[in-house]
Write a structure and sequence with these properties.
Helices cover about 45% and strands about 10% of the residues. The chain is an alpha+beta fold. The chain has one domain: Glycosyltransferase (Alpha/alpha barrel). A four-stranded antiparallel β-sheet has the order 4-8-7-6. A two-stranded antiparallel sheet has the order 1-2. The chain has a two-stranded antiparallel sheet with strand order 3-5. The longest helix is centred in the middle third of the chain and has 20 residues. The radius of gyration is 22 Å and the shape is globular.
């Protein structure tokens, strides 16, 4: 296999490390990674909307709540749920991954907002677009809305969000039909966002934090998985495979960071030992993120759980380092890390984010991680791994291809995304029905609308990318791929070497 000259590959003891020689414009990529969220907006778009080929959508997401709210786990027919984000290339609002994406956007600003320059304003707007929606979704005591839209009907159609005429059923969890994972993740998103806004709008920050406390209490008091309450509608799309214990600890960790209340530190101490997936982090499993986040919170603490958390955070790092004897991830010949499941770049961006945050912790404590076999992980090595993943995404790979739409000379043109692949309302004012978009899905033309900043699922293990709408595992962008990448790009924009 011939590699481009601008990449240098070092093979040692069966491991592959990539050192990129291609310079990237991290500032441009940062701007575009945030702009992507405007393309995912649902609801009434503001005058400041920059991705102008998108128009208002799902303005009918308003519901009459029945008087007896203890019977059904879903509400068919007055709560305003207009707004929020479409998670990927469809037109459903899945609140579980939307909340995780919001938490990660907020964490990106908390850690790296000082490096965002003029893009910070747009990052704040992206966060608030979600939090405004989550305030609505948690506005009825005893209820947390988990989803808007019938996913089966939606996935049976290929139509613009501006046109969609599929059922916009709203699904909620409640005391009798609990959903601790989705509720606790929303609490985490609200708490993290309250920290962000404390500097810019104290009243709004307070409102977010008060709601986060209430929603977390609800999630903890009425324990249960939304798989059991809403399984037929949330599965297999965003089924919770890791259980809800991690979201409860994750929510408590963010509330501890936001409030410094001992109650939440005690909650972490009592429950963190229930977490078993130290190497996992994403919209489903929060374990590695908890260990990294709490490690920084407990630097000067004598918490009983501190050794357990630090040990698991170190084990996570060693599970990713390609030269580590305990590595658990795979790497392509081109240097991209792989974990099982679809949309692989979600792992590359999320792990890169955690590596940068944990590198800061290691530097602050003057520590290196002993992975065994005379392998030590320094803060510099963690940053090197993160940069290698980001550079791969931006084009330093065997295909010489950027996996961010609109960045670089070559990038995906036929992404699995309804709004992007269909003519905009400006170009085609007539209604395009459920099956009316099939022609646009099936043809081989480039998508007519550029979803700038969208990062797709990425190439396969052989560093190959088909650029096909039908290959959604590789060609579909998601909010939870982009959200951690925002922070990573902000860091490298300020630390390019």
């Amino acid at each position: 296999m011939g590699f481009p000259q601008r990449l240098l590959f070092i093979l040692a003891a069966g491991t592959i490390l990539s050192v990129t020689g291609l310079e990237h414009n991290y500032g441009e990529a940062l701007s575009k990674s945030i702009l992507f969220f405007e393309g995912q907006r649902s609801g009434k778009l503001p005058p400041t909307q920059r991705m102008t080929w998108r128009k208002d959508s799902a303005l009918q997401d308003v519901y009459i709540v029945p008087a007896d709210t203890t019977v059904l786990p879903f509400l068919r027919n007055k709560v305003d749920l207009v707004g929020g984000y479409y998670d990927a290339g469809d037109n459903v609002k899945f609140n579980f991954p939307m909340a995780f994406s919001t938490t990660m956007l907020a964490w990106s600003v908390i850690e790296f907002g000082k490096f965002m320059g003029p893009d910070l304003k747009h990052a704040l707007d992206a966060i608030r677009w979600a939090t405004e929606y989550f305030l609505k979704a948690t506005s009825i005591p005893g209820f947390v809305f988990a989803q808007v839209g019938d996913p089966y009907a939606d996935h049976n159609c290929w139509e613009r969000p501006e046109d969609m005429d599929t059922p916009r059923t709203a699904f909620a969890v409640s005391r009798d039909f609990p959903g601790s994972e989705v509720s606790a993740e929303i609490a985490a998103a609200l708490a993290a966002s309250s920290i962000v806004y404390r500097k810019y709008h104290l009243g709004y920050s307070t409102r977010l934090l008060q709601r986060a406390i209430k929603v977390f209490d609800f999630a903890d008091k009425y324990r249960g998985s939304y798989n059991d309450s809403l399984g037929p509608w949330v599965c297999p799309f965003y089924c919770d495979f890791s259980g809800y214990q991690d979201e409860l600890v994750w929510g408590a960790a963010w509330l501890f960071k936001a409030t410094k209340r001992p109650y939440y530190a005690d909650y972490i101490d009592k429950n963190v030992h229930n977490l078993k997936n130290f190497a996992e982090f994403g919209w489903d499993s929060k374990d590695a993120g908890i260990n990294v986040l709490v490690s920084k919170l407990l630097i000067n603490s004598s918490s009983n759980s501190k050794p357990f958390i630090l040990n698991n955070a170190d084990k996570f790092v060693c599970s990713v380092l390609p030269e580590s004897p305990s590595v658990l991830v795979s790497y392509s010949s081109g240097g991209l890390l792989f974990k099982p499941g679809g949309s692989n770049l979600q792992h590359a961006t999320a792990i890169s984010f955690l590596f940068l945050v944990y590198a800061g912790y290691l530097k602050q404590t003057n520590k290196e991680i002993d992975c065994g076999g005379k392998v030590f992980a320094s803060p510099k090595r963690l940053k090197q791994i993160a940069r290698g993943q980001v550079d791969y995404i931006l084009g330093s790979n065997p295909a010489n291809m950027s996996y961010m739409v609109g960045y670089g000379a070559k990038y995906p043109e036929r992404i699995h995304h309804r709004a992007s692949s269909l003519p905009s309302v400006d170009e085609h004012r007539g209604h395009i029905g459920c099956k009316g978009g099939s022609f646009y899905f099936d043809n081989q033309n480039a998508n007519p609308n550029l979803l700038v900043g969208a990062v797709v699922g990425g190439p396969d293990m052989k560093d190959s990318y088909a650029d096909s709408r039908a290959d959604f595992v590789h060609s579909e962008p998601t909010t939870y791929i982009n959200a951690p990448l925002v922070g990573v790009l902000a860091y490298f924009n300020s630390h390019p070497s």
